[in-house]
Batch of 2 targets.
Target 1
Amino acid sequence: MTEDLIAQAKAILRRNDRGGYTVPTHGLYPFQWNWDSCLSALGFSHFDEERAWTEIDTLFANQWPDGMVPHIVFHEEDDGYFPGPEVWRTGRPVPTSGITQPPVAGFAVRRLVERARNPALAETRARALLPKIHAWHAWFHRCRDPQGSGLVAIIHPWESGRDNSIDWDDVFERVPTEGVEPFNRRDIQHANPSHRPTQAQYERYIWLVQHFRRLGWDNSKLHDASPFQVVDPGFNAILIRSCTDLADLAERFGLAEMAEQSRQLASNGIAAMDTLWSDAAGQYLCQDRTTGALIQSPSIAGLLAGFADIPAPRAKAIAKRLAALGEQVDYLVPSHDPSVAAFDSLRYWRGPVWLIVNYMIADGLFRSGESVIAQRIIADSLRLIERSGFAEYYDPHTAEPCGGDQFTWTAAIVIELLSQELTPA
Ligand code: GLC
């Protein structure tokens, strides 16, 4: 069974390989996506280390001069996706979008180095990538935390990787739709419209893109100019974990200054993260940076926070919360609390289970010694695959496979889970 699943997963990675980068899936997402690539590299690393490094190298070859790593790289023309390069107009040599995505590269590169069967290759590739990842982290703190709070904000829901989360609903009311140029969505031609973001949400996504475009994609202006500024605990946890992992790698390779700066960013982040904790919710919550208020919306972001080295009592509370959610669904982890009225078990990030997030939550829980619940998350993830194949995401009650199929990062995480014992670092 295991062998067979690994073989199927490898075939998906190969099929979605466009030479130097993978597409997330045929049709729906025909370009390179940022965090998809970093997580997919983990899958490749078990059977083709060279290819794993190349996946991340290709992404970073498209880093912006200011340090940002864009969320999409449009390597080839394809009119099957909206919004394409003609909407973003970022003026990059290879067209890219103008926003970023969860910075999981530092974590992924550390994993690749630690498990390298070819340490010389790993050292060469990691040494070339480290300064670039460090520049991206510095960009985040400079451009997305201008007040030096220790936590960064996202300025577009797509940056979170959780496009249509319930977390954004109230803040999104502040984003206007006047002046949005007419557009033709392509996603609903590839996937079931009732599983996708709504038209009203799409208009706001595009309004923000047009707004940033008018500001010339100048990252010294975009944060303050955005009506959408949200501090997402899951996103910040990924950044903090990547800073910690980068610090360890920098130490290993004798890069003392990078190690010290990364360590400092991580510890500032951990300290500041506590401002997002809610005793009432029993988890971390997003914060609306414009008003300073916590967003009372119990989503998976506040559980993914455990991917960073948060204090032990917080990790314990998250484990408890997950155990309670586990009584409400058959498959952990739903992307939103099912007891909330807006929960929707089929609509993208408003309820369904995503394997990549499961993987990161479980990894963090193992590090904190919360192995019982971490094991359940992994067991649930594998049951989903056995039952429903390598989908983009799944209904947490029925295991119905949703969105795109033959999905690259889902396949990569299956290889990752089945090829190694997921144990504390
Ligand atoms: C969707 C997801 C995002 C992912 C992308 C490509 O936009 O919300 O997280 O990176 O698809 O798979």
Note: The pocket of alpha-D-glucopyranose is lined by residues 24, 29, 33, 35-36, 161, 163 (CB under 6 Å).
Target 2
Amino acid sequence: MTEAPASVEVLGCRLDCVDIDEATARMLAFARGNRPAQVVTLGTEMVVAARRDPTFRATLAASALNVCDTVGVLWAARRRGARIAARVTGAELLERLCAAAAKEALPIYLLGGAPGVAIEAAQRLAERYPGLRVAGAADGYFPAERAATLAEEIARSGARMLFVGLGSPRQELWLAEYLAASGAGVGIGVGGAFDAVVGRVPRAPERWQRLNLEWLYRLLREPHRWRRQLALPHFVALLLIDEVRASLGGRRTP
Ligand code: UDP
């Protein structure tokens, strides 16, 4: 049997072939260490966006760990020989890491969501994981001028793990710029995960998740997302074109 690759390229974006256990373990190591490490939950829309936006592309390339967030990326990665059992979502990582952070007394900070959501999510997580140290929480509707001050506040809070739910690509770009100043060992963009913690946007029932239909559940609940979800057919088309090009001896998308 050939050895499974540690990472694969999906339309020019690096995807690290890790499952949720390994992603959690690596992130804990980052949190304990003193070199800031950014983690990205790589989704289909992000891969498509990275093709148009060089800054975003560079951010994804520079991140310490890119995990597979969507069924589209999972499908593409498997076609590239990756052995990944399942998606690794921001919402699941948030829960796993809070459980581990509670045991190791690693303080966390939640940044993002509508006013009040991050604070409520922090309270819920602290109830769920006794011993969890919440260094702070702030909403995600702040003016650009406040970003640097916010990073200083996070640094003063002593947080080791920074969860940022500003939506993509804003959260990844924010982390690329401010993670070092925040003093946290690890930072990750988690999209709408705080909304899920407080039950504002429930996750799809487990059956839907198992059938890889979470995207359809979200589309039915939030029909305004249809335009964003066009990224999936766009992604599949780009991928197939890329494969045909490669099979004809051309170069894959850089
Ligand atoms: N959000 C925010 N500030 C903004 C725009 C969005 O904090 O300026 C939050 C929003 O409240 C939501 C999250 O970012 O909690 C985006 O969630 P979404 O489900 O769209 O994330 P994605 O699908 O991009 O992962």
Note: Strands lie at 7-10, 13-16, 37-42, 65-68, 108-112, 134-138, 161-165, 186-189.
